[in-house]
Amino acid sequence: MRDAQGKIVTWIGSNTDIDEQKRLEERKDEFINMASHELKTPVTSLKGFTQVLQSRFKKRGDGETLRFLTIMDTQLNKLRRVVGPALAVTAGSLVTLVIVLWFSPPELIRVAANFTAKTVCSNVFLASRDPNEVLRSDVQAPGHPLLRLMRVEVDRKLGVVRAGLFGFIGGGLAVLRPDVGCAVVPDGRLDKGRAASAATSLAAGISEPEPRGFEAPASLENNSSLGNSAALETAAALEHAALRSVIEDETLAGPGMRAIVVSHNGRLIAERYAPGFDPKTPQLGWSMTKSVTAGIVGVLVQEGRLKLDQPAGWAPGDGRDRITIADLLGMSSGLQFNEGYGAVSDVTRMLYLEPDMAAFARAKPLIHPVGAAWSYSSGTAVILSRIVQDALGPGAIAFVRTHLFGPLGMTSAVMETDETGTLVGSSYMYATPRDWARYGELLAQDGISQGRELLPRGYVAMMASPVAASGGEYGHGLVWRWATHGDKPGQNTDAPFGIPADTFWMGGHDGQYVAVIPSRQLVLVRLGLTPARLNYRPQPLVRALLAAVH
């Protein structure tokens, strides 16, 4: 566990108190020196080496040292199960290495450990998936080589997931919290994490997500659908043979596809799920969450609680006070933010090392004049989340449910928070594929659902209008204007596929897409685990669907 400055103070074990953990941290160098001095000869097994140290230090009467060594023996037993029992090493060097990695793991290992804990936590407790399968398929298979060495422990009773390299290096920690899913706990303070959870839940004034009391719109719930590709036997499936052929085409669906949902004129007309997933399985949208955050902002604009041209809350002095909500929605704030993945960057640091994500993003300096440059930034979406919550006060979570998710019938939707309780509006919304389609339908219908204006008139058109500095690729409301990047700036990659010009996209990491085509009243949801290196493009799928739908 680490404090706010990143210093490790715990995760030594559940039987150690905070004071003891701090004392052990303060004596880290002493322990390393003792281990290196006492054990200098090669050994052929890790087994029992701490007992040797214990016998040598026992006569010194240092109970704290003996306690440390007992803990180390437990952790090294985990390591031995991974690397094998017959490893020829110099014990002093091994002890030194393990202690250093344990107390001061590199930040990349901490990022990987917290990513692992968070991914397993959310998928186990929100999507009811098997933790070993999640670790294998969602963490180890597609990612960084470090992730293949991650191990997890799931405490279902407490709603806690711990993860680490070989099971104990990195201190990954995530906790389930009522109503808002799982949160990374980067500083390891479960007491703080649970306190934030209690505050959020009490503020919402509900013990269960409010939308559960709403009737789901019939248009996306009770219409016949093509169902699972293994059992397409309904009359609707027979009538829509062309659609079935499209969604069953493996090339069009792409590698790692987990769900395809198609709605037309507000009706669910086709769906397909990979083994292990079904219509009730919530799935992570990654950066599609940004587009939902834009919708939440729109609801507050509709109610007069926010204005697009209002300042975003920085004090005068360095130019950041000129940033408006509109600048944040268009990714044109001018703030520094490195969105690179695969290493420790601003985005991975924010998501996995920072307890207060919004504070981290807001502290970034200006590197461009406000409104003059476009730069994709998850940080700006989290800043918007904090602005929303500050505008709404303690009941923000309940407000989102009752004023957006509830009217749309999105009973599965959960937007998760950081450790401090700020919605991670950049990255962390889970919803079933049908509920992602429901949100797409709201956008396709210009912010109107069941005759009710949830968003201001013209707001969706503003969202989809091009940010000039993006070369036309990005819209003013956290949406993409075409699905994939071109070979050169400003290249519309949808055009060669005959996709209507008014199409816009919600897009997320590893192959998450919602295509919204207002002129055809068509919405496509395609979810999966499809790393960018596979070069999947969803446009051929959309082209084929357009040809099949009349």
Summary tags:
Beta-lactamase; 550 residues; 5-stranded antiparallel beta sheet; alpha+beta; disordered N terminus; 4-stranded antiparallel beta sheet
Short description:
This protein is of the alpha+beta class and 550 residues long.
Hey, roughly how much beta strand do the residues contain?
5-15%
Determine the mean pLDDT: 82
CATH architectural name of the largest domain: 3-Layer(aba) Sandwich
Poorly predicted segments: 1-18, 41-49, 85-92, 201-219, 221-236
User: What structural class results from the helix and strand content?
Assistant: alpha+beta
Strand order of the largest sheet: 8-7-16-15-14
The Cα radius of gyration reads: 25 Å
**Largest β-sheet summary:** 5 strands, antiparallel
CATH H level of the largest domain: which superfamily? DD-peptidase/beta-lactamase superfamily
Distance linking N and C termini: 57 Å
In the CATH scheme, what's the topology name of the largest domain? Answer: Beta-lactamase
Report helical residue fraction: 25-40%
Counting DSSP H or I runs of 4 or more residues, the number of helices is 20
* Name of the top-level CATH class of the largest domain: Alpha Beta
Shape: globular
